[in-house]
Give the backbone structure.
Amino acid sequence: MKSSAKYFAVNYLMFLVALSGLIVTCQGKASVTLSSTWEVPSEEASAQSLVQIRINDFADLAGYTTYTYHGPDTTKENILEAASSFGHSYAIVWYVGHGWIRTWTHYWGWPWQWHGHKQMLIVADDGTRVYDYEIYPETSGRNTRFVFLWSCEVGEEVGYMKTYPCGETKAYGMPFAWLHTTDLSSNGYENPDGKGYVFIGFREQAPFLTADYVENVTNGGEWFTISFYRGALENGLSIIDALDYAAQYEFSQQTFADTELYQGIYDDYGQFVGYMKVYGDGNQKLAVHDVAVTSVTASLPYGATAVYPGWTISVSVTVKNVGDYTENFNVIAYANSTIIGTKTVSLAPGQTSTLTFVWTVPTPTWTFPYPHYTISAKANVVPGEIHTINNLFVDGSVTVKHWGDADCDGDVDADDIFTYMAPAYGSKYGQTNYNPNCDFDGDGDVDSDDMYTYLAPYYGQNFRQW
């Protein structure tokens, strides 16, 4: 019986471990590129590969885990896996290859019960069709945030859940299938919806990446895509600004709205080809520069609640790189507006560092109540950083008392000597009768220096008269 119970327990534990492995979601970001070479010329396949290489370079720089499928590796299984974000909590996808809207007639009973079906699709490298309704179940986690399909007809409309007369209910529309929502702005470039999801595709036909009739630029689609991802991932621009950046850099146009990609593409024979559609939130950023000060702590020595001029205070500052790029930046600690010190730190994405600054308390301009110093720290803004509210952290204030005023009542009198100094005289930090309020020179003991150098000269003075 014991051996059977042990066998059951071990196998049950193994089952739980295996089950947990199935439901764990990877943290971090994933960038997936897929290129189908089905029925495309060799020069187009080469352009597809180059775009993938450059996207991967930019995505690596921005801290993404990259998945690359080119040619035979762009299988139906890998396309569906890409839709599931490979288990990551945030994913972006780029696909290039053929796509279209397929319509067909469905017979589902007698008599003459015929009706039409219509679905969007893209193709794997072997020509296998991957339909929108097959992609939709894979995106239920809604972790895929940005999808760019360089493919025909996939941007015709957002889509919806469609029920056919035969009773079949299927997801229709690539934006709907990939982003798992119908709540997308119909023009995410001019009217971003702020929802954090973006789909880019083509209405009607998409030109080859190597087409030379897009803005009369050879391989215009190839270079536009590379520049777009450079702007979005290397430079940290929003989708809108990255589209504008690519339009300026590759086509010498002021904005994306000025390009043929937006207004309408015509081939060398004057025939209309199609145009690019942006759905959702064009203000979304795929990568950001963002550093933060997460905590500041001024540690007063000896258990003190206030300090005297000349004391040494340790100030700990914790900073974190909450962005997507490795950053080098300066961190400055302050007492009021006076700089305590500056340190330089280099942090990878997600990395934290705690810096220690030493502050020697100055002699202030005396007032009563006694002056307070606000302790804070600032991380200098890094290039490309927009969200800067977290660059500053304020800890609180440190009160600086006048020497001799052990009870902090604004004068040096008999109370300070007989009620406070006398019981603590001769003590050291750690002893029960040690009192940091009587350790005026901050050296960890209460001795003759505190009595004769720091208290006696001020005996009888009333600081409340300042």
